[in-house]
Write the C-alpha cells for this entry.
Amino acid sequence: MRLFAWEMGSVAVLALVACSHGHGSEPVAASPEPAATTINQAMLNVFQPAFQDYGDTAFWAYDEDGNLDAEQLTDDQWALMQAGAEALRESAQEFAGYNAFIVAEAGAELGFEGQGFVPPEEVQAYVDANPEGFATMMAYFAAEAEIAANAAAERDVETLVAQSDVLYNACKACHMSFWYPGQR
C-alpha cells in the first residue's frame, strides 16, 4: 500500500510540473533575480534535516502492535515535527517566489543518493529548462508542509503520518524531475 501511495503521489506531482511547461501563462514566481540561497544549500541545511525532524519522528507514532497512537509521541517530538514542517514550508515558499535559481556554488559536488555525484551543470540545465515548474513544485511542497505543520500543532496523528509520505513523495518527484531525470 505504501508503494502504491508513493507511486500515486509521484504521478500527481510530476503531472503538476508537466502542466507548467510552456503554456504562456504568467510565471508562478515573482522575482527575476535568482534566489539568494542555492538549491543545494537549502537541501543540505534545511530540507534534509527538517524532513528528518518531521518524517523520521512521525514513525514513533506507532504502538508496538503497529497502530497509530498520538500518546506514543512526547511534547518534544510534537514540537520537533512542527518546527521541521514549518522550516520546510518557509524554505519552499521562498523558492516559490523566484523564477531563477542557482543550483550550487562553483565546484560543489552534488550527491546522487549514494551512487556518486551529479554534475551541478547538468542539474542547472534541468532547472533552467523549467524554472516555472520548479517554482510550482516548491509552492506545492510549501502547501503540503503547511498541512504537516498544522497536523503537528493539532496533534492529528493520522494526518501527521500521511503528510510524512506526501512530503517524501514530493521530494522524490522533484529529484526525479530536476536532479536526475530518467534515473531511479
